[in-house]
Specification:
heterodimer; A: mainly beta; 6-stranded mixed β-sheet; 5-stranded antiparallel β-sheet; globular; B: mainly beta; 7-stranded mixed β-sheet; 4-stranded antiparallel β-sheet
């Protein structure tokens, strides 16, 4: 099956710092998504990317869909304590037979005030 | 107004027992899913139903049996529980099969002793 490698696995940063995480795949996707999971909750969609090369922002978050369609990155600027959580990338390949999301392994973010 | 609700949130049981987790969505979505999140936080799809019809059935032991009485409900029954079944189980829904945005429930933490 498709594999997604997400890095780093964990990050410990100071409040105010910028954060960058990325996801790479052995196969191409036609959609990349980034989810955040707060402690004790289910994942929530942050950003969706639909086109190779697309750069999309959502407040302090910026994500890009790699040109090769095999990678994506997520940046968080000026981190704050509530950014703490697990960030998951997910890739989707839509085919005539259907589609499914493949999730990365997650990046655990800790922000020290 | 919880969009995707799961019960119970916590479940502690002995090996060999049978247990069920229930899920309901009030979003009017056609597709529902069960994901398993292990201790390493990896999210793995187990099942997907579209309009009560099983669409995805990953390599999951047949001790796990999903049931969808209607498109707003997807329950998960687990027979003969084993220690390795301990995990957080997430229910999710999307507008249609192949929909990019998944709405997750809060998760059901299952602990098998």
């Amino acid at each position: 099956g498709q594999q997604l490698n997400q890095s780093p696995q964990s990050m410990f940063i100071q409040e105010g710092e910028d954060v960058s995480m990325n996801c790479t795949s052995s196969s191409i996707f036609n959609t990349w998504l980034w989810y955040k999971q707060d402690p004790g909750e289910g994942p929530v969609l942050l950003i969706a990317l639909y086109k190779a090369g697309e750069l999309t922002s959502n407040g302090r978050l910026t994500a890009q869909f790699g040109i090769t369609r095999k990678d994506s990155f997520l940046n968080i600027s000026a981190s704050i304590p509530s950014d703490v959580g697990i960030y998951f990338c997910a890739g989707q390949l839509v085919e005539t037979s259907g589609s499914r999301l493949t999730f990365g392994e997650g990046t655990q973010l800790t922000v020290n005030p | 107004d919880t969009a995707v609700s799961q019960t119970p949130k916590y479940l502690v049981t002995q090996m060999g027992n049978d247990k069920s987790i229930k899920c309901e969505q009030n979003l009017g979505h056609d597709t529902m899913y069960w994901y398993k999140q292990d201790s390493k936080k990896f999210l793995k799809i187990m099942f997907s139903y579209n309009n009560k019809e099983l669409i995805i059935n990953e390599t999951v032991p047949n001790r796990f049996s999903p049931k969808s009485p209607d498109k707003a409900h997807l329950n998960l029954h687990i027979n003969s529980l084993e220690l390795g079944d301990s995990a957080v189980y997430f229910c999710a829904s999307s507008h249609f099969f192949g929909g990019r945005r998944l709405f997750f429930g809060e998760g059901s933490r299952l602990t098998v002793l």
